[in-house]
Write a structure and sequence with these properties.
It is a single chain. The chain has four helices and seven strands. By secondary structure, the chain is α+β, with helices and mostly antiparallel strands. The protein has a domain of 84 residues: Roll (Structural Genomics Hypothetical 15.5 Kd Protein In mrcA-pckA Intergenic Region, Chain A), CATH 3.10.290. The longest helix is centred in the C-terminal third of the chain and has 11 residues. The termini are far apart.
Length: 125
Amino acid sequence: MAMTTPTSVRVDSWIWAVRLLRTRSTAAAECRAGHVSVNGEKAKPAQAIRIGDEVRLRGSEVERIVVVNRLLTKRVSAVVAAECLIDNTPPPPTREEAPAVITRDRGAGRPTKRERRDILRLRGH
């Protein structure tokens, strides 16, 4: 009995199989939430994908852009998974391009616990 390769696979199953997300249920939830698009259109969990389709997965910080290179239905090792997709995700911004973290001057804002104790002591409490 010869194994046949599928012509299409569910998008949530493929995202899980190539290790973009940890569980298939998480992949399905991301699809339902509108965070997954296939070829520029929002994808439902059961949407079929084929070789050459572009899958975009919007995460918390970075949007992953991958092109389907090989169809999988079962989860595989990270080495094999890397061969099944072409990662077109842009590199993260350099430290100079990233927005600076806003810090406030020491002493500005609410007093610390030590400062509150000093204030109470001055007031005679």
